[in-house]
Design goal:
Helix content is about 35%, strand content about 25%. By secondary structure, the chain is of the alpha/beta class. The strands form 4 sheets. An 8-stranded mixed beta sheet has the order 1-2-4-3-5-16-6-15, with helices on both faces. β3, α3 and β4 form a beta-alpha-beta unit. α1 packs antiparallel against α3. The mean pLDDT is about 95.
C-alpha cells in the first residue's frame, strides 16, 4: 500500500474518534483568549497520541512537535484556531453548545479536531517521512490583536523555525468532498473604525440652542461613502459602517453620536493613506458644521497572501489526493483572517475545506446560529493535510 492509500485508510479508521472530538469541542465552546478547557482537552489528546507539546503560549495556545527521521532536515507548521463566537446556537443536535450564548459558528472546532486527526495520522507514519512537523493550536483568531500575532511574538515560529505553514478553513458554500485554493493575495487587511461626533445637545423644539451631531454624522457618512466609492476602482477596498448610536429621544438632541465601522483593503501603502483620509474627511465634515469628530482607528490583521509556489504545489497534491474535479480555484475575498500574520513571515497556504451538503440542508453560513457541517469533511480534512505535510517534507 502506498503512502497516499495509507493516509486514506488511517483517515477512515480515525473518523469516528475525530468526529467525537469535534462534537465535544462544539458542545463546549469558549470565547477568544478564554480557551482554557479547550487547551486542556487538546493537551490530553496529544498526550494520548504520544506527541510532546508546550502549553500556555499567548495564554492558552499549544505547540506540539512531531519528529520524523532526520528531524533537522526540514520543519513545517500546521495551524488550527480554537476560539468560538458570542452567538446563541439554534441547531437541534445532540452536540449543541452547552455554553449558552457561545457557539463554534466559524468552524474552529472542525479545524482543531481535524488537526488532531492529522497529528494521529502523521504519528503513525513518522517512520515514513524526514523532518519535523510543528502543530500550532492557536487562541483568539476572532478578536484583536489576534492570537497569531501574540504567538509569533512569543516565538511560535522559532526553535525550530518552520520553512512554511498550512491552514484550512471550513467553507459551507462548497460541497463536502471539495477544497479550494487561491494563489497570491487572498484575503484583506482589517481595521476597526470608531468615530465620536460631538456637537451641542438640547431640546428638539429649540434649534437655536443646539448643534445636532446626528446631522454631522450623516454628513460624515456620506462624505466617506463618496470618497471611498471613487477609490474602489483603483484599490480593492471596503469601508462600511454598521453601528450608529445617538442616544437622544423624539424631543432630545444628544450631545454626541458614535459610529463604528470597518476598513478592508489589499495594499499596505494605501491602507495607511486611507487611515489618514478617513480622519481628514470626518474631522473636516464635522468642523464645517461647527462640531468635532474624534477618530480612533484600531489597526487589525494584515492582508493574507498565499505563497504562489507553495499554494501551487498544495493544489496539485490536493488534485492527486481528491481528484482534479474536486479542487477549485477561489476568488479573492474581502474578509479577513489572523493567519495573515503567519503569511507575512513565512511561505503560507490557507485553503478552504468544503463542509456544506445541500441534500442534507447543511447550508448555513459561518457566524450564523444554525451553522453546522457535513462531518464527512473531517475525514477529508485530516487526510489531506497529512498528505500535503508529507509531500512538503519530501521537497528538498
Amino acid at each position: 500500500m502506498d503512502i497516499k492509500e495509507k493516509i486514506k485508510q488511517l483517515s477512515e479508521n480515525y473518523f469516528s474518534e475525530i468526529r467525537a472530538i469535534r462534537r465535544h469541542l462544539h458542545a463546549h465552546p469558549e470565547l477568544s483568549f478564554q480557551e482554557k478547557n479547550t487547551a486542556d482537552f487538546i493537551a490530553s489528546t496529544l498526550t494520548s497520541i504520544g506527541i510532546p507539546f508546550q502549553k500556555g503560549i499567548a495564554g492558552t495556545g499549544i505547540v506540539a512537535i512531531l519528529e520524523g527521521k532526520n528531524p533537522k532536515q526540514k520543519t513545517i507548521a500546521l495551524r488550527a484556531d480554537m476560539d468560538a463566537l458570542p452567538i446563541l446556537e439554534e441547531n437541534k443536535t445532540n452536540y449543541i453548545s452547552q455554553n449558552k450564548g457561545v457557539m463554534h459558528a466559524c468552524g474552529h472546532d472542525v479545524h482543531t479536531a481535524s488537526l488532531l486527526g492529522t497529528a494521529k495520522i502523521l504519528f503513525q507514519l513518522k517512520d515514513n517521512f524526514e523532518g519535523t512537523v510543528k502543530f500550532i493550536f492557536q487562541p483568539g483568531e476572532e478578536k484583536l490583536p489576534g492570537g497569531a500575532s501574540l504567538m509569533i511574538k512569543e516565538g511560535v515560529l522559532e526553535n525550530p523555525t518552520p520553512f512554511c505553514i498550512f491552514a484550512q478553513h471550513v467553507f459551507p458554500s462548497m460541497e463536502t468532498g471539495k477544497v479550494g485554493f487561491k494563489k497570491g493575495m487572498y484575503m484583506a487587511s482589517t481595521d476597526e473604525i470608531y468615530l465620536t461626533i460631538k456637537g451641542k445637545g438640547g431640546h428638539a423644539a429649540m434649534p437655536n440652542d443646539y448643534n445636532n451631531p446626528l446631522l454631522m454624522a450623516s454628513k460624515i457618512l456620506m462624505a466617506l461613502e463618496e470618497a471611498f466609492k471613487n477609490k474602489k476602482n483603483n484599490y480593492p477596498t471596503v469601508l462600511a459602517f454598521g453601528k450608529i448610536i445617538g442616544n437622544g429621544a423624539t424631543n432630545v438632541i444628544p450631545a454626541e453620536v458614535k459610529i463604528d465601522g470597518t476598513l478592508r483593503t489589499m495594499d499596505e501603502k494605501w491602507r495607511s493613506e486611507a487611515h489618514q483620509q478617513i480622519k481628514t474627511i470626518a474631522q473636516n465634515a464635522a468642523a464645517e458644521m461647527n462640531g468635532f469628530c474624534d477618530v480612533n482607528i484600531m489597526k487589525g490583521y494584515p492582508f493574507l497572501v498565499n505563497d504562489e509556489t507553495l499554494t501551487g504545489k498544495a493544489q496539485h497534491w490536493a488534485e492527486l489526493f481528491l481528484g482534479k474535479e474536486n479542487v477549485e480555484e477561489l476568488p479573492m475575498r474581502m474578509t479577513a483572517e489572523d493567519f495573515a500574520f503567519y503569511s507575512q513571515k513565512i511561505p503560507a497556504c490557507f485553503y478552504r475545506l468544503g463542509t456544506g451538503n445541500k441534500s442534507k440542508n447543511i447550508i448555513s453560513g459561518v457566524h450564523t446560529p444554525t451553522f453546522d457541517i457535513d462531518e464527512k469533511a473531517l475525514e477529508i480534512g485530516m487526510g489531506l493535510m497529512a498528505w500535503m505535510a508529507i509531500n512538503e517534507l519530501a521537497e528538498k
